[in-house]
Design brief:
The protein is an alpha/beta fold and about 270 residues long. It has 9 helices and 7 strands, in the order E-E-E-H-E-H-E-E-H-H-H-H-H-H-H-E. The protein has a domain of about 120 residues: Glutathione S-transferase Yfyf (Class Pi), Chain A, domain 2. Helix 1 crosses helix 6 and helix 5 packs across helix 8. It is globular, with a radius of gyration of 20 Å. Its EC number is 2.5.1.18.
């Protein structure tokens, strides 16, 4: 790296030659894989969840609690806390089920294969797997309803990194405030909020107006954007003027009042040690 009047010039080859600062500097690394040996606990329920109550983690909590609300015994689960601030996502047991070392991860012990139980990582994959397994909250027949649901799921997967890794990081977690990235990601975050607000003007839920249209697209998007609209993320409600998005506010508040959602955001996770 070379410096000229404090202007950063990228080197020809990047090397990790200093602490990058920020809230998660102590655990950031350009390499993957386990950093220490640690087996994961396994409870008696068919589903074992290893997670944290971040927006990505809350997504899975919501679906599991919605399935519990319907009395589906096969969706019973044990939930364990993976404290990412302590680097617990790099224990060997967790890396074995999620080579990407990110929460959440889930293991389905009810359908053991010759290779053992089914392990899943990535929140979208977990929700789609569970929704298809129990035939709830995801239209299975090819057609508009399924297409709409999948489209909004993928919208969230593509959009949330700009909100979390972009806006959230530079606004709340970076070692110092920097005008360019904050402005860049604020503009994109507000554009995304406007996308949702405009769509929800004519839709009670993301995929329609009936109660039966509530599905995993709402759960996935609400965990990030609903909580952001309700002032639950990054202490940024005033900065982003979230109250201006009236239709988004209506949707976010309605979902927040669901009993399963209330339980999901307050879910108690068992420590893994």
């Amino acid at each position: 790296m070379s410096q000229d009047n404090n202007k950063y010039v990228p080197p020809k080859v990047w090397t990790q030659d200093k602490d990058n600062g920020g809230k998660f500097a102590s655990i950031n690394s350009p390499t993957s894989g386990a950093r220490y040996d640690k087996e994961l606990p396994v409870g008696d329920a068919p589903l074992q969840l290893y997670s944290l109550n971040t927006p990505n983690g809350v997504k899975v909590n919501i679906l599991l609690e919605e399935l519990a609300e319907l009395g589906i015994d096969g969706a019973a689960y044990d939930a364990y806390k993976i404290d990412i601030s302590k680097g617990e996502q790099f224990g060997s047991g967790f890396v074995e089920i999620n080579p990407n070392s990110k929460i959440p991860a889930l293991v389905d012990h009810s359908t053991d294969t010759a290779e053992g139980p089914i392990a899943l990582f990535e929140s979208g994959a977990i929700l789609m797997y569970l929704a298809e397994k129990f035939d709830k909250f995801l239209p299975l027949a090819t057609g508009k309803a399924r297409a709409d649901c999948l489209s909004w799921i993928m919208w969230q997967m593509g959009s949330a990194p700009f909100l979390g890794g972009g806006f959230g990081h530079f606004y709340a977690y970076a070692p110092e405030p920097l005008e360019y990235p904050i402005n860049r990601y604020t503009m994109e975050t507000k554009r995304q909020l406007d996308v949702l607000d405009t769509h929800l003007k004519d839709n009670e839920y993301l995929c329609g107006n009936d109660e039966s249209d509530y599905n995993i697209a709402d759960m996935i998007v609400w965990s990030w954007y609903g909580q952001l609209a309700l002032g639950k993320l990054y202490d940024a409600a005033e900065f982003l003027q979230v109250e201006d998005y009236k239709h988004l506010q209506r949707w976010a508040k309605k979902i927040a009042e669901r009993p399963a959602v209330k339980r999901a955001v307050a879910l108690e996770l068992k420590p893994i040690d």
